[in-house]
Amino acid sequence: MAATAETGAPTDTGATPKRRKIDEENERLHHSISSVPVVGQNIVAGPKKHHATKTLVRPPHSIPAATWHLNPDLDRQGPLSREQLGEFYKNGFIFIPDFYKETELDAVREDVERMIDDLAVRLYRAGKLKSTYEDLDWTSRLLRMRKDFPDAPVILIKGGILPAALQTLFAHKKILDIAEQLDLGPSIALNPAWNLRAKMPSHEETVVPWHQDNSYWEPRIWDEKVITIWVALVDATVENGCMQMVKGGHRKGETASHTIGSSTTTWYTEMSEDVICSQLLDNAPLEEGVNKVTIPAKAGSILIFPGTTPHRSLNSFSDNIRWSCDFRLHPKVAARPGKSDLDWFYGLKDSLLLREDMRINPTFTPDFSQWADTDRTECQDAAKGVDAHQAKEEFDPVIMGPWMDLWDLEDNGRPNKHIDAYLQSDPSPRDVAQTYIRNGNW
């Protein structure tokens, strides 16, 4: 592996036949979606394109572009060097290898193993598994569970109870020091939108298309400082589906046009490469090794980037699972407040304050007790009129959320149970004129 001069991130420079085959397949899955409104590709059927049609059309957004990144203070003190600060503001991300210790990752694995064990027992008792497969490790076990019950991985990642080991990762002092150095502080909060990810071999639900994280937030915070921290819990490679970033895609501060359902049968927001180039790169082409940066990462390494940086994860051709997690940090109060100071997610679940201004409260300690046990997914379901308890008991794999209110929904010719469920849910939030636009939240 070589390190790029500007990002410090390891990039795979080899061009072996195996690597070329992986690159070609990833491009087949990801690159061929054309520009809106005619977008989409049938991932399952192969390279033949199926032009998507509009199911629900949204008006254009009008929130001003973010400007907080334009005049950075590169002399702010903290864990990052001046060069790393410059990389963050210039490239739109920084890669920090070996950030978390092996003992911290081991604790996460143990918590995830308990989560898998709980799910296996529930699925077995419901007659959906032939065995609990308790003799297998966390990766082999979930892969074997998927053979019996294909939705097992989605049910696992859909859960929204934050385990103790992830609480420790998210509230890590050095992470909060970096957030403060990036001018999120002095009071820093944890967004409820965190994720545990189990990327499966050739599994559409865990192949995340090009998007900006802003596409999942209310428009009122698109110009705010919200950073994502992505954590490799195991080694992430090109073969098992590592991350790709668009270097410089954040510089205009714009949140580009996204859709849902254009090329997948999932709940993910997505944007085509044509949109990235036209709306974010001033029509410059997207080129591997130039502004499309592939980032293999050793376990414990992290990526930090704002909500305006386009990124995706590649498809996996490995026999194992690429485990990762991601979380978001932001200031305590937004310029356009929601229902409370800590409402940064559609009023469904408040963020958790991780650090109070140390000049006011130097001994502040975050209280995860109630917050960690409030399931964000259940909050999302309840807001759409879904019986969250029943959905859990029935192992319902459908994921839908308020971000679906924001973007055009499309039909690519394959059934999409997530969009179907959304369209059958409470219609009132879909009246964006009443729910969003009249409140200056569009």
User: Which runs of at least 5 residues are low in confidence (pLDDT < 50)?
Assistant: 1-7, 29-49
Q: What is the rounded Rg?
A: 21 Å
Question: Sheet with the most strands?
Answer: 7 strands, antiparallel
Distinct helical segment count: 13
Class per helix and strand makeup: alpha+beta
Net shape? globular
Alpha carbon gap, first and last residue: 43 Å
* Percent helix range: 25-40%
- Average pLDDT works out at 90
The protein's oligomeric status is single chain
User: What is the count of β-strands?
Assistant: 16
Q: Hey, roughly how much beta strand do the residues contain?
A: 5-15%
Order of helices and strands: EEHEHEHHHHHEEEEEEHEEEEEHHHEHH
Describe the model.
There is one protein chain. The protein has helices spanning 17-30, 82-91, 102-125, 138-148, 152-158, 164-170, 173-181, 273-280, 369-372, 376-383, 388-393, 417-423, 432-435; strands at residues 2-3, 10-11, 53-56, 94-96, 188-190, 195-199, 227-232, 243-246, 259-260, 269-270, 292-295, 302-306, 311-313, 322-331, 352-355, 408-411. The chain is an alpha+beta fold. Strands 4, 5, 6, 7, 12, 14 and 15 form a seven-stranded antiparallel β-sheet that branches. Helix 3 (102-125) packs parallel to helix 4 and helix 3 packs antiparallel against helix 6 (164-170). The longest helix has 24 residues, at 102-125.
